[in-house]
Design goal:
Blueprint (H helix, E strand, L loop, with lengths): L2 E6 L7 H9 L4 E4 L8 E5 L2 E5 L12 E4 L4 E2 L1 H13 L7 E4 L3 E2 L2 H12 L13 H9 L12 H22 L7 H15 L3 E2 L1 H10 L4 E4 L23 H8 L8 E7 L2 E3 L12 H9 L15 E3 L1 E2 H11 L3 E5 L9 E10 L5 E2 L6 H4 L2 E9 L16 H14 L3 E5 L7 E3 L24
Parallel strand pairs: 1-10, 1-11, 2-5, 2-10, 5-7, 6-8, 7-9, 11-15, 14-16, 15-19
Antiparallel strand pairs: 3-4, 12-13, 16-17, 16-18, 19-20
Helix pairs in contact: 3-4, 3-5, 5-6
The structure holds inosinic acid (IMP).
Length: about 450
């Protein structure tokens, strides 16, 4: 029995789906605990490509209970179309459970997300326009519609009659957009409620029972550490808590049941949307990283936007180890670096304004923008790695690259992915039952800039 959290250790899109798919094989329950259909997960099984936005990829394993937890925001139309797509491909979706208290993304959230983005002037966040921020804002404002409301006509009617006129004031007066019709929304969403009613339940109780029964539970984070509302590169973040702590509040479990936290990083780094990205590469190198990501290029699964690409950033990596308490790392897409004669890793930052050296991520957003990467340069291995199935089969220079990442982050690399297929995976040490990471007494990454 082991309860494991998998989180993104960078800016999202780290290849978490590949890792959760691998771990889901032995999981009885897979839980998504935050975010919504802003996420995009791609898994390749037996030559078939599956793209997920809301439903955990664990649904591909028959009998695995898949949970959309209380901390999520759910666009029920997106959920219905994802369910339909899975059913069309003959997949059994009866093991899906949807939290009654998760919040619902409504049509006015979608309109407001787009309107707010379009009117931010030079301060765009680059959201996925899936209504995520406005849905979480209503949740915090305690005026949100929850999944349970879609099953209760009186509750839904009362909420919409009060909410829609309020939202229309914003849509019409601030953004000069057409108003929405509470009646139409009611009719449509009460029908949607009937379609998903069979999946709705108290998911926290299901997880607790699974804990009691000594089942294996996998908590699947979406987005990544630097997109965390509290700990990410605010304001260029999502509106939820993708970090490990978010798994407990978002799923409704206590931290004492968690056995292990696994961080997923690409062997380089990408970001979609706006915000600081010190190791970003703009010219040839950026384009080569973007185009090499096999078999699909570095393009967002949800929005189709090209991802910004750059070198691996160990400062970000160390931060992810700290914020999530990572026990080990899964490094994905190592094969993308196969044809680079020279590979760089950012080991620290230099403040362009003050000349100060930062080994840790600066906590102040304004300062993060000024960071210039300090690189160590590696000679590339220039050999294909996608056929390697063990650490020893990897070219020596690739092994050195991974060892260096592990050293810099003070965190063992347990899994390496060398391609999109399930079997293109190298397990260096058991990610679940491997040794617990022990923090060195005086960390090399101590906050040098504080002195
Ligand atoms: P939102 O989550 O749609 O509000 O977008 C906020 C920021 O998070 C934007 O920069 C998005 O590009 C980014 N983002 C949201 N979801 C993902 C994801 O699954 N992968 C990568 N970036 C994401």
């Amino acid at each position: 029995m082991a309860n494991v959290i998998v989180v993104g250790a960078q800016f999202g899109d780290e290849g978490k789906a590949k890792v959760t798919d691998l771990l889901a094989k032995n999981a009885d329950v897979v839980v998504r605990y935050q975010g919504g259909n802003n996420a995009g997960h791609t898994v390749v099984v037996d030559g078939e490509t599956y793209k997920f936005h809301l439903i955990p990829s664990g649904i591909l394993y028959k009998g695995t209970v898949c949970i959309l937890g209380p901390g999520m925001v759910i666009d029920p139309k997106a959920l219905i179309s994802e369910l339909a797509a899975l059913k069309d491909r003959g997949m059994d979706t009866s093991c899906l459970k949807v939290s009654a208290v998760a919040h619902v993304t409504m049509p006015y959230h979608l309109a407001l997300d787009a309107a707010e983005e379009d009117n931010r002037g030079g301060k765009k966040i680059g959201t996925t326009r899936r209504g995520i921020g406005p849905t979480y804002a209503d949740k915090c404002d305690r005026i949100g519609i929850r999944i349970e409301d879609l099953l209760d006509a009186d509750a839904l009617r009362a909420k919409l009659d009060w909410l829609v006129p309020k939202k229309n004031i914003m849509l019409e007066r601030i953004y000069n957009l057409p108003p929405q019709d509470a009646d139409e929304i009611f009719k449509e969403y009460i029908e949607i409620g009937k379609k998903i009613a069979g999946y709705v339940c108290d998911t926290s109780a299901i997880i607790f029972q699974a804990v009691r029964d000594r089942k294996n539970i996998l908590f699947e984070g979406a987005q990544g550490t630097l997109l965390d509302l509290d700990h990410g590169s605010y304001p260029y973040v999502t509106s939820s808590s993708p970090t490990a702590g978010g798994a407990c509040t978002g799923a409704g479990v206590g931290p004492t049941i968690i056995d292990r936290v696994i961080g997923v990083s690409k062997a380089y780094q990408t970001r979609v949307g706006e915000g600081p990205f010190p190791t970003e590469q703009f010219a040839e190198i950026g384009e080569k990283l973007r185009q090499t990501g096999t078999p699909w290029a570095e393009v967002g699964v949800t929005t189709g936007r090209p991802r910004r690409c750059g070198w691996f950033d160990a400062v970000v990596g160390r931060y992810a180890v700290r914020i999530n308490g990572l026990d080990c790392l899964a490094v994905t897409k190592l094969d993308v670096l196969d044809e680079f004669e020279e590979i760089k890793i950012c080991v620290a930052y230099k403040d362009l304004k003050t000349g100060e050296i930062y080994n840790d991520l600066p906590s102040m957003a304004g300062v993060f923008w000024r960071m210039e990467p300090i690189y160590e340069t590696f000679t590339g291995w220039m050999k294909p790695t996608s056929g390697c199935r063990s650490y020893s089969e990897l070219p020596e220079r690739a092994r050195r690259y991974l060892d260096f990442i592990s050293e810099l982050l003070e965190c063992p690399v347990a899994i390496v992915s060398v391609g999109p297929k399930r079997d293109q995976t190298i397990v260096i040490e058991d990610p679940i039952h491997g040794p617990k990471r022990v923090l060195s007494h005086s960390s090399a990454s101590s906050a040098a800039h504080l002195s």
